[in-house]
Amino acid sequence: xxxxxxxxxxxxxxxxxxxxxxxxxxxxxxxxxxxxxxxxxxxxxxxxxxx
Amino acid sequence: xxxxxxxxxxxxxxxxxxxxxxxxxxxxxxxxxxxxxxxxxxxxxxxxxxxxxxxxxxxxxxxxxxxxxxxxxxxxxxxxxxxxxxxxxxxxxxxxxxxxxxxxxxxxxxxxxxxxxxxxxxxxxxxxxxxxxxxxxxxxxxxxxxxxxxxxxxxxxxxxxxxxxxxxxxxxxxxxxxxxxxxxxxxxxxxxxxxxxxxxxxxxxxxxxxxxxxxxxxxxxxxxxxxxxxxxxxxxxxxxxxxxxxxxxxxxxxxxxxxxxxxxxxxxxxxxxxxxxxxxxxxxxxxxxxxxxxxxxxxxxxxxxxxxxxxxxxxxxxxxxxxxxxxxxxxxxxxxxxxxxxxxxxxxxxxxxxxxxxxxxxxxxxxxxxxxxxxxxxxxxxxxxxxxxxxxxxxxxxxxxxxxxxxxxxxxxxxxxxxxxxxxxxxxxxxxxxxxxxxxxxxxxxxxxxxxxxxxxxxxxxxxxxxxxxxxxxxxxxxxxxxxxxxxxxxxxxxxxxxxxxxxxxxxxxxxxxxxxxxxxxxxxxxxxxxxxxxxxxxxxxxxxxxxxxxxxxxxxxxxxxxxxxxxxxxxxxxxxxxxxxxxxxxxxxxxxxxxxxxxxxxxxxxxxxxxxxxxxxxxxxxxxxxxxxxxxxxxxxxxxxxxxxxxxxxxxxxxxxxxxxxxxxxxxxxxxxxxxxxxxxxxxxxxxxxxxxxxxxxxxxxxxxxxxxxxxxxxxxxxxxxxxxxxxxxxxxxxxxxxxxxxxxxx
Lengths: 51, 748
What we know:
The complex is a heterodimer. Chain A is mainly alpha-helical. Chain A is about 65% helix and about 0% strand. Chain A has helices at about 5-25, 35-40. Chain A is elongated. Chain B is an alpha+beta fold. Among the domains of chain B are: about 1-115, Alpha-Beta Plaits, CATH 3.30.70.100; about 265-350, Calcium-transporting ATPase, cytoplasmic transduction domain A; about 445-470 and about 575-680, HAD superfamily/HAD-like (Rossmann fold, 3-Layer(aba) Sandwich), CATH 3.40.50; about 475-575, Calcium-transporting ATPase, cytoplasmic domain N. In chain B, the strands form five sheets. Chain B has a seven-stranded mixed sheet with strand order 15-27-26-25-16-23-24, sandwiched between helices. A six-stranded antiparallel sheet of chain B has the order 7-6-8-14-9-12, with no helix packed on it. In chain B, strands 17-22-21-20-19-18 form a six-stranded antiparallel sheet, sandwiched between helices. In chain B, a hairpin with a 5-residue loop joins strand 21 and strand 22 (about 565-575). In chain B, helix 1 (about 1-10) packs parallel to helix 3 (about 60-70) and helix 8 (about 185-195) packs across helix 9. Chain B starts with a helix and ends with a helix. The interface between A and B is medium-sized, with 24 and 31 residues.
């Protein structure tokens, strides 16, 4: 059962990374224009992300 | 994907896929660009930024066309479209570019743009409450998943030291997460308790903390059962309900704020030296002299100082016949100037204006309205005391029977968790969110869930006439035969005027394929008509008195060539195409119908006849409408008011439920619970159907929650609920309730 000592922290750590990534995205307005972003990826020339 | 297909085509013809065509460019023409500069705000460095609403943006092609089109404009450093919000933010160098230039380029591309107050919208856009809920939801979700994972190991058979270790880790994750994510419930429960009331959040908070507390006690003493997973997933599920509820209201608020921001208009103020200045309507000072060009609405109440014209008062009084005004006449905000430029002195006292009077009536109507108990509140009032009584009985019963404190507390906790209105917390918000989405797709905006609930219970529908049952614009009713020589002359004269009767006449001529005659010296005489020269003879098109004809009862213009016989063209405000159908559909549902109008008896009787409404009242002032509705409410009649004018606003506020067309006045839209778009009246029936469907789904959900409790509570009282059963029961009922709400999406 000693493997639990490694696996539990690993699984919680991975979950935490996901949580923090979501919170970061929320705070950085990544969800402001979902429709626009899904279309923007199809434009082939250089994008100006913060323009 | 539909969007991607259109891109290449749209790039070659800018705005091609989405441009609304002539209608959009005509609307763009009417937009005063002069006052636009006041919306510009300083940005980083030397640039300015402006936010524009562009409702015609629909796809990736539009986004592309606008960004490249604006990017090429001199002085513009960047243009960024927000496709979801249909907005553009433009950064430009104020020395080289201007807001007016940006709007003009957008107009050339085929997009009508309106600047709006980004600072005022920022609060709505940022949606800090929604974000806060989302953060708490994410934390609760994370904790619930991990604790559930650990619990599965316990249920799978971990025991002794391993089980204690898993319980301890669960506690370390769950307790901080509960303390953080549960704050909205704890806060609301405290507020209710300090007001000596019980709401749904009281049993929720109690169950969560008792579950966490007993689980911690069990963990410390190496006990077998811990309910950390139940406590945190309860919060997770309920937060989903909270967030859905918030989204329903936030999207409506945002739509309302957008409509208001879009209609922000400027007035042209004439200074002492004759200099013209554009001022926002909110900044108009009493005593200012404003110029109202033909086609504009009067910006504020006041008195005509100079000029003569006709005013369309339908938005203010409901009257469909235009009124001639001259110097000295009192005019009200919202009246539409038709023929000649007017100079209006803004009334000195803001309190005496019609709008202030209407606002006072709305306020008193809202105060007089009995507080409405929402479905969830009603359920909570029955449910919350019951939960506490059952849990207390379980505790006392087991303590008396066994004398074991620890067992009694554990069972009481299990009862609280099992009865906890997890499904009830989701039952109504899920239904509201699905119903709101269904309405939104049909162009109907719902202000909040309460408006939908009230709509479901109506027993009578009261319509306004002008602009609601009718389209609010005149259409030719009778005229000479199509080959009459009067037609080409009338078409030519009507073509030069913006008067609605002239427009209707020109439209009718175009529809008959009549080519306008060639006339000389055409000029418009404000308050009278249009005249011109045809083969050396004077021709006049206008009011009966001016032309020299005998005035009849109908709304009419007359055409007279020289001393010949005058020819009459009569008009009527055309009833919406599906008005009869909608009225029949409402009657078929057993609803009583009535027509309350500010217009004269004649037109009211005609519309009542067309729609088959027998209960029709004409010449009603806003106060009459309000009094009539309050009288109906006292008799226990629950009324849906459908209206658009400023004169309908107090009635809309007083009615049990209310709807407005999107073209309504600002006050009416603000007072109405639902706003519908489009030329048809059919959304009234659709919204009613949706509201009734939502009510039956909500009732079914309550029924399911009750049935689940009827089974689960005896099991919990018997002390047979393990954490595994609690987790299964809770998730199962929540999912069932949500799926039942979703059934509405596909329903016809």
